[in-house]
Every structure is written in structure tokens, then in C-alpha cells.
Amino acid sequence: QVQLVESGGGLVQPGGSLRLSCVASGIQINNYNMGWYRQAPGKQRELVAVVRTSGVKTYPDSLTGRFTISRDNAKNMVYLQMNTLKPEDTAVYYCNAERPLTLVDYWGQGTQVTVSS
């Protein structure tokens, strides 16, 4: 059974930082593109960052410079370092594992990030 479990969310003040973690079981993440997505209330889920099996990282232009994704294949984990957080970053953040060139992907249950003073 494949599981992706996120952790590290919480309440943080504007300008603060958080580090999200995602641990995978049932798959070897070195075979997967690993990504973080988020969904704010009333909005569609959107891509935050992805790190491919090659190690190439992609971010939407709006987040470049504040968010950093990384992976540790040996630990089967992926991380999202979020700096200079803004209230508009408030959302549920989801971990995703996508097997390249297939329709196989898995999602975690999400972790809430709230940026508020």
C-alpha cells in the first residue's frame, strides 16, 4: 500500500518560515517525480514545486526564490522549505508522487499551513 504522509504545517506569522516534509512508503521515490501542491479555500489545487527524477526542479514564477524543494531518495523523503511566507500562502499543502511516462500518481492527505498575525 502506497502512502505519502506530510508533516510540518502549522500557524506562522507573515515573514516567517516553515519546512514541510513528506515521507513515502510502498514506493521508491527515486522512480518518481516528487511535487508539492497547494489548495486554498475556494481555489483550485496549484503546483508549488516539483523535483524530477533527474533532480531538475521547477517552480511557478510567483514562488521562485521563496520556496525550495529537495529530495532525499535514501530516506524516501521530499521537503519544501518555505521562506518569507505571506497570508496568501495559506492553504493545504499536498505531497505528490508521479511516475514518469505513466498515469500513476499518488497523493498525501495534506498538511495545513496558515500564515497570519
Summarize the structure.
With 117 residues, this protein is mainly beta. The chain has strands at 3-7, 10-12, 18-25, 33-39, 46-51, 57-58, 67-72, 77-82, 91-98, 105-107, 111-115.
Describe the protein's architecture and organization.
The protein has strands at residues 3-7, 10-12, 18-25, 33-39, 46-51, 57-58, 67-72, 77-82, 91-98, 105-107, 111-115. It contains no helices and 11 strands. Strands 2, 4, 5, 6, 9, 10 and 11 form a 7-stranded mixed β-sheet that branches. The protein is globular and about 40 Å long. The model has no long low-confidence stretch (mean pLDDT 96).
Features:
single chain; 117 residues; mainly beta; seven-stranded mixed sheet; four-stranded antiparallel sheet; 11 strands; 0% helix
Average per-residue pLDDT, rounded, comes to: 96
Low-confidence stretches: none
Give the proportion of residues in helices: under 10%
Largest sheet: 7 strands, mixed
Strand content: over 45%
Shape: globular
N- to C-terminal separation?
40 Å
Helix segment count? 0
Structural class given helices, strands, pairing? mainly beta
Radius of gyration: 13 Å
Give the total of beta strands.
11
Spell out the helices and strands N to C: EEEEEEEEEEE
